[in-house]
């Protein structure tokens, strides 16, 4: 059972992630050259991809919050908090870019948040810190692959979105390596498969809704 303080922390995180204006601690990554004007179709595709990326950051906030609540090691909890702050940067960057593209976040963000929070909390409570870290590694590895695919799909002229995605990818790799160094255990193959399937459903739906 979660105590009152933990429940307040969980509620605060959900409210800040879903409805408050995210504040980045780092400036938005600058593009090497200005974006060129996008066609209507390019703008729609760029916005859809950035909406998916924003959903990923909503889920990251939820996952890390659930894991921190279940974490037994104070030093590890601090590392998870640091990673979560970097994910807040991503949340702010992707939301800002969505607005620049005249589009909106996913309407199902509360659902995505609830699912990711439940996974993070269950991983920590049922499997302990090392298994929880294994979820971090696998999640970040899958996110890295997903961001690589977005670099292939984003319009060539959308250098602003590309700069954001490139920095996000570097950060996700660093989070995975942090978890490995902290003692993460590899997840069983079937668990990885379920995570990939869930991610596929989320990205497909969020691309449109």
Keywords:
single chain, 209 residues, mainly alpha, globular
Short description:
This protein is mainly α and 209 residues long. Helix content is 77%, strand content 0%.
Biggest beta sheet attributes? none
Helices and strands, in order, run as HHHHHH
Shape: globular
Counting helices, strands and paired strands, the structural category is mainly alpha
Count of β-strands: 0
Q: Overall pLDDT, averaged?
A: 92
| Percent helix range | over 70%
% residues in beta strands? under 5%
| Cα distance spanning the termini | 34 Å
- Number of helical stretches of at least 4 residues: 6
Q: Work out the radius of gyration.
A: 17 Å
Low-confidence residue ranges: none
Description of the structure:
By secondary structure, this protein is mostly helical. It has helices spanning 4-19, 40-70, 74-100, 109-153, 159-181, 189-206.
How do the strands and helices of this protein lay out in sequence?
Layout: H1 4-19, H2 40-70, H3 74-100, H4 109-153, H5 159-181, H6 189-206
Helix pairs in contact: 1-2, 2-3, 2-4, 2-6, 3-5, 4-5, 4-6
């Amino acid at each position: 059972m979660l105590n009152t303080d933990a429940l307040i922390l969980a509620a605060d995180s959900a409210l800040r992630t879903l409805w408050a204006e995210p504040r980045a601690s780092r400036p938005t990554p600058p593009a090497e050259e200005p974006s060129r004007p996008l066609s209507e179709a390019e703008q729609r595709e760029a916005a859809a991809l950035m909406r998916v990326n924003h959903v990923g950051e909503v889920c990251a906030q939820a996952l890390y919050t659930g894991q921190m609540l279940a974490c037994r090691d104070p030093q590890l909890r601090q590392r998870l908090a640091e990673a979560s702050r970097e994910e807040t940067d991503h949340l702010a960057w992707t939301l800002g870019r969505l607005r620049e593209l005249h589009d909106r976040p996913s309407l199902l963000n509360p659902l995505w948040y609830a699912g990711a929070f439940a996974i993070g909390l269950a991983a920590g409570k049922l499997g302990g810190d090392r298994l929880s870290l294994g979820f971090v590694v696998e999640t970040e590895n899958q996110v890295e692959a997903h961001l690589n695919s977005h670099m292939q799909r984003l319009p060539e002229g959308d250098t602003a979105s590309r700069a954001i995605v490139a920095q996000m990818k570097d950060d996700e790799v660093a989070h995975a390596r942090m978890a490995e160094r902290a003692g993460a255990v590899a997840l069983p193959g079937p668990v990885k498969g379920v995570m990939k399937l869930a991610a596929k459903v989320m990205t497909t739906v969020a691309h449109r809704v």
